[in-house]
Design goal:
Elements: H1 5-20, H2 26-38, E1 39-40, H3 45-48, E2 60-63, E3 66-71, E4 78-80, E5 93-95, E6 101-104, E7 118-120, E8 125-129, E9 142-144, E10 149-152, E11 166-168, E12 173-176, E13 196-198, E14 203-207, E15 221-223, E16 228-230, E17 245-247, E18 254-256, E19 269-271, E20 276-278, E21 292-294, E22 303-304, E23 317-319, E24 325-327, E25 341-343, E26 348-353, E27 365-367, E28 372-376, E29 383-385, E30 431-432, E31 438-439, E32 442-448, H4 459-475, E33 479-489, E34 495-503, H5 511-522, E35 535-539, H6 558-564, H7 569-589, H8 592-595, H9 598-601, E36 618-620, H10 622-628, E37 637-641, E38 644-650, E39 656-662, H11 670-681, E40 691-697, E41 700-706, H12 713-717, H13 727-747, E42 752-753, E43 762-764, E44 770-772, E45 779-780, E46 789-790, H14 802-807, E47 809-810, H15 812-828, E48 833-834, E49 837-838, H16 839-846, H17 873-883, H18 894-907, E50 922-924, E51 942-944
Helix pairs in contact: 1-7, 13-15, 13-18, 15-17, 17-18
Bound molecules: 2-acetamido-2-deoxy-beta-D-glucopyranose (5 copies).
Length: 951
């Protein structure tokens, strides 16, 4: 049969095909119809086309004609969720969040959705008990039922959901005890994979069971605030070393705080306030990662100011109102480098208030009302409250610090400003975006439930959040800009910020876009800068959907076809052919990668040897890249190097890319170029910039890479990018880059030597994950057993291994040398050769191992934040100096480097493997097995490491 025939037939008979072959299983169609009957405000596509999967109903995602995702957040759905949901038996994700019109109980039939991995119903008005059948959801990873009206007790069967990662039941009306296993019943203590217990703002009662905690648990957030829990804090808590955020405040807990609490050295936020805790004030010595501590309003014994007041170097906020403290406040407290707020009201602190001579510019508030302070050294410039102290009885009564009271309730305001443009006057309900375009934004609130900071005036944080959000949604082509406003802090210390997200392109969002945005914020696919964790998002309704007009492809021809159907068996055969063809067509349409088959474009007839062996890499034509980069316009020019220029481009899929376009002089031979892309296409690691495609067309050679949002490490070190790199972040960057290089050296086959490691070749993504880039000069080792390559020396001055320079023998150890130089840059933020001085020599000469910080204070970058925040620095210096040893054999291998940097991270109070909520690393999904990849609209999202075990 002629190739063309099926095309012709297809055009004619499509309508019949669709009617005769409803793709979606009858079971699912019935289930969805039933849901639709019980809800108002379902998307217009529901029901106006016959087939949910085939016609792409909004909010439905399918695989093999089965509905696997149902995602309808912020749609103003009203009604109840009926047991007919069980018809959708292949469902993996159910997200109905932010629909306050959804009421009534969660049906027990939910338990029959055996494949469900995400159940997300936050911000609705579901009520009644949580059905115990929920325990049969063996695949469940995310259970978010927060902010509803669920009542009754927490079903113990939840303990059987062994894969559960996030349990969020906060802000409901749940009562009774926290269930633990025993007497044949399961309990929450069995959830050893779970990282988040969010049970705050309920009416839970009884003690916190001792059995709940054990060293098997991998919890990072235990947030139980604002319940009616009583009894004492179990000492078993002290063995859960992964913990980072503990909130037990606003309960009725009594008894002594367990003495092993300070075993929890990763805890950053600790809230025990407003309980009835007694005994000695807690000993927090050694909790060197603590940022925010609130122990206020408890019944501790009268005790002297504890020694840890002067030693917790990460401390931003110390709240110990009404805790029976006595004695003098050590002036060392005020010298803590990160301290922002001290509230010690209503204690028995006496003597002289001595601020000391340290830098207190970051310290916003010292509140010492109602104490016994009789003198003050007068050295503090911020807000000081001393009312109701002896110092204010005497002649000092007229001093300003004796007159003002409790100013801490004044919340500074923050509003996103326009990006160098004049806000447009907009009609009716439209809002002018930060880019001054009138549009209908999607609105909601970001809620930060355990802030790690208290300097609310400091707008750099909100700016960083704004940039992070913008980059995230821009990179997914979901938004044009975002705006933050209405900062508030409530009595539980939750911070709230209103968020407006402005549409990209048009003036309004489609349903798919709102679903996607709400879902990424709601399920934490989006992660804010680390100091904003933990958070959740509460979306509003969107009222201005752009309902894309439905295609009219299934319209008129039915009659003709039905008539034709009389034609009998010939037709059957034709239909079979059409079906085969249709399936083929569908497969073809699947990915741009397939359409852009490199095997086709690589013109073999020019005698360049075989077709490149490429995995998942796209071959672009010159014309395409011209279009995607806006004609290689200057505005898209993001950098250059010896080889040529780099342009930013946007693929039709919305993905941002960096296009590296070789100069005429650096064009390599066809064979060499082919070898290079073959090599690059095999390299996949989250710490390496990955190759998206290439262009070998019209005498041009271009490599197309993923776009990495935050630019080069050098830009950040030089202060150009505006990103603050403290010690922790520098360690994470060093580790990431080291892991990337170790992969090139030790896991690639054949191994790859980078040959040009430098701070401009280490890029940072929007979570500050380091990505090694530019393998343009890479050479793979040949596999004939030679362990070095003799080639013309290439590389960058300042990073060049002297051994390689002299002998021209290239080994992996030359990369190690250059990496050592990068480590010195991380320490000093200086260029390798600055004013004729070589950094390696400079550090070697200044170094004195007998002195504190090896006597390198003068050379270190002040932005690191000196103090305890730099624990492990000496070891880091040692490691860098080992890398730059003249003798190649004395330099470590990259995998040894990775191990040592991990050890240093432990010293600094960081866990390199549990990439936690308060870390800034991201995790690129490579496997599609994870439940998070089932989001109907986000195939290529960046997934938070904190949601997935990344080993
Ligand atoms: C296909 O679905 C449509 C609408 O949902 C329905 O009217 C039709 O009867 C179905 N056809 C078959 C063959 O199931
Ligand atoms: C939500 O839906 C209800 C009922 O359909 C309607 O009365 C209400 O106006 C809608 N609200 C918004 C904000 O669209
Ligand atoms: C401290 O934590 C470790 C690690 O879980 C545990 O083995 C040890 O028993 C804990 N120490 C105390 C005193 O609880
Ligand atoms: C506090 O804890 C530290 C570290 O565990 C310990 O060395 C110290 O003795 C404790 N202090 C008191 C007063 O118990
Ligand atoms: C402060 O209080 C402590 C303990 O109550 C006491 O020993 C000390 O003498 C007092 N100091 C002054 C200067 O009053």
């Amino acid at each position: 049969m002629d190739q063309r025939t099926p095309v012709f037939l297809l055009l004619t008979f499509v309508p019949f095909l669709v009617l005769a072959n409803n793709q979606t299983s009858v079971e699912d169609v019935t289930g969805l119809r039933s849901l639709k009957d019980q809800w108002t405000n379902t998307p217009p596509s529901w029901g106006s086309t016959p087939d949910p999967c085939e016609d792409g109903w909004d909010g439905i995602g399918c695989t093999n004609a089965r509905v696997i995702t149902l995602t309808l957040p912020s749609m103003n759905l009203t009604g109840t969720l009926s047991g007919d949901i069980q018809q959708l038996s292949e469902l993996q994700k159910l997200d109905l969040s932010y629909n306050k019109g959804l009421t009534g109980p969660l049906p027990q039939e939910i338990g029959s959705l055996k494949n469900l991995s995400q159940l997300i119903l936050m911000g609705c008005k579901f009520s009644g008990p949580i059905p115990p059948t929920i325990g049969s959801l063996q695949e469940l990873v995310v259970l978010s039922l927060n902010s509803n009206r669920f009542s009754g007790t927490i079903p113990s069967s939840i303990g059987k959901i062994s894969k559960l990662y996030l349990l969020d039941l906060a802000e409901n009306k749940l009562e009774g005890p926290i269930p633990v296993s025993g007497g044949g019943e399961p309990g929450l203590d069995m959830l050893s994979q779970c990282k988040h217990f969010h049970l705050g703002m309920n009416k839970l009662s009884g003690p916190i069971p001792s059995k709940l905690f054990s060293s098997n648990m991998s919890l990072i957030h235990v947030v139980f605030e604002s319940n009616n829990l009583n009894g004492s804090i179990p000492s078993s808590l002290g063995v859960v070393q992964s913990l980072e955020v503990v909130r037990f405040d606003n309960n009725m807990l009594s008894g002594h705080v367990p003495v092993n609490l300070n075993n929890l050295t990763s805890v950053s936020q600790l809230f025990l306030s407003n309980n009835k805790l007694s005994g000695p004030a807690p000993n927090l010595t050694g909790m060197n990662f603590l940022h925010y501590v609130d122990l206020s309003n408890n019944s501790f014994d009268v005790s002297d100011v504890p020694p840890w007041f002067s030693t917790l170097e990460s401390l931003t906020t110390l709240m110990m109102e009404n805790t029976q403290l006595r004695g003098e406040i050590p002036s060392a407290l005020f010298s803590l480098p990160n301290l922002q707020t001290v509230v010690l009201r209503n204690n028995k602190l006496n003597g002289t208030l001595d601020i000391g001579t340290g830098d207190t510019s970051q310290l916003d508030l010292i509140d010492l009302e109602q104490n016994l302070i009789s003198a003050y050294d007068g050295r503090y410039n911020g807000t000081l409250l001393l009312m109701k102290n002896p110092i204010c009885n005497k002649s000092g009564a007229s001093r300003i610090y004796c007159k003002i009271s409790k100013s801490s309730d004044v919340i500074p305001s923050y509003n996103t400003t326009s990006n160098n443009c004049v806000p447009s006057p907009c009609t009716s309900n439209q809002v002018s975006s930060p880019n001054c375009k009138c549009a209908y934004p999607y609105e909601g609130t970001l809620i930060f439930t355990a802030p790690s900071f208290s300097d609310l005036k400091n707008s750099t944080r909100y700016k960083e959040l704004e940039k992070n959000l913008t980059d995230f949604f821009l990179s997914k082509q979901l938004a044009d800009s975002v705006s933050l406003s209405n900062l508030t802090k409530d009595s539980l210390s939750y911070l709230r910020l209103s968020l407006e997200i402005f549409p990209h392109g048009q003036d309004r969002f489609t349903r798919k876009e709102v679903s996607s945005i709400a879902s990424q914020l709601g399920t934490h696919i989006y992660q804010p800068p680390e100091y904003f964790e933990p958070f959740y998002f509460m979306g509003g309704y969107y009222q201005h959907f752009a309902d894309v007009p439905l295609e009219s492809k299934k319209s008129s021809n039915v009659g003709i076809i039905v008539g034709a159907a009389a034609g009998g068996s010939v037709l059957v055969l034709i239909f079979l052919l059409i079906k085969v063809y249709a399936i083929r067509q569908k497969r073809r349409a699947k990915g741009a990668a397939d359409q852009n088959n490199p095997f086709v474009k690589w013109d073999v007839d020019k005698g360049s040897g075989s077709i490149p062996q490429l995995k998942g890499v796209i071959s672009f034509s010159f014309k395409e890249l011209l279009k995607y980069s806006n004609n290689f316009s200057e505005g898209n020019d993001v950098g250059s190097g010896g080889y040529g220029k780099v342009y930013r481009g946007t693929l039709p899929t919305g993905q941002l890319v960096a296009i590296k376009r070789a100069h005429k002089e650096s064009i390599q031979g066809r064979h060499q170029f082919k070898t290079e892309i073959e090599l690059l296409s095999r390299v996949h690691h989250k710490n390496l910039v990955s190759l998206v495609g290439f262009c070998f067309d019209r005498g041009e050679e271009m490599l197309v890479y993923e776009y990495v949002a935050n630019g080069t490490l050098k830009d950040s070190l030089s202060g150009q990018s505006g990103i603050r790199l403290d010690w922790k972040r520098r360690l994470k960057i060093a580790l990431g880059a080291a892991r990337g290089l170790a992969y090139l050296h030790e896991l690639c086959d054949p191994p790859i030597i980078h040959r040009d490691i430098k701070s401009t070749n280490i890029l940072l993504d929007n979570r500050l994950t380091a990505k090694v880039s530019d393998f343009g000069l890479s050479k793979s080792m040949d596999d004939n057993g030679r362990d070095h390559l003799s080639t013309q020396v290439k590389g960058t001055m300042g990073y060049l291994d002297p051994e390689y320079y002299m002998t021209q023998r290239l080994t992996e150890k030359s990369d190690v040398y250059a990496f050592g130089v990068v480590m010195l840059e991380l320490l000093t933020a200086r260029r390798p050769i600055e004013q004729g001085k070589y950094i390696v020599r400079g550090v070697r000469m200044a170094m004195d191992k007998t002195k504190d910080l090896y006597n390198l204070q003068q050379l270190l970058d002040p932005a690191i934040g000196l103090g305890m925040a730099v624990r492990g620095l000496e070891r880091f210096v040692d490691l860098a100096m080992m890398c730059v040893e003249e003798e190649v054999a004395n330099r470590p291998t990259m995998s040894e480097m990775v191990k040592e940097i991990e050890t240093i991270m432990h010293l600094a109070g960081l866990n390199p493997n549990v990439e936690s909520a308060s870390s800034s690393a991201s995790y690129e999904m490579s496997s599609s097995k994870d439940p998070y990849t089932n989001d109907a609209f986000d195939y290529s999202g960046v997934f938070p490491a904190s949601k997935i075990d990344s080993q």
